[in-house]
């Protein structure tokens, strides 16, 4: 049973959480199609991982962009986790955050997640709506169900 006294005492907190939830929902609706469109079609099958473009930058620019990319990635992962219980596209947001972040075992994890038919269908549906070619599915021995 909900304690009405607690709700009345914490109205500010509840309104802040509702506002944050709405902000994350709208932010995910706006950013996910843009971010998903930026993934190369062969991202999950190309061993080069399209990193040569960034490595050709000045070292300060390279490090700065890499830090910014990781910061945005981890913010998306955290927002996606929150969206699992709040309104928003939680799983896709987590995947986009993982794609942007750098960590050991990232490539293997991405390929396993993207091998899930539902996840890949969701990614490709959004890409198709934006007029982009579908992602080539990864070939792994034991995909996620």
Automatic annotation (TrEMBL):
<dbReference type="Pfam" id="PF09656">
    <property type="entry name" value="PGPGW"/>
</dbReference>
<keyword id="KW-1133">Transmembrane helix</keyword>
<protein>
    <submittedName>
        <fullName>Putative transmembrane protein (PGPGW)</fullName>
    </submittedName>
</protein>
<feature type="transmembrane region" description="Helical">
    <location>
        <begin position="12"/>
        <end position="36"/>
    </location>
</feature>
<feature type="transmembrane region" description="Helical">
    <location>
        <begin position="71"/>
        <end position="100"/>
    </location>
</feature>
<keyword id="KW-0472">Membrane</keyword>
<keyword id="KW-0812">Transmembrane</keyword>
<dbReference type="InterPro" id="IPR019099">
    <property type="entry name" value="Uncharacterised_PGPGW_TM"/>
</dbReference>
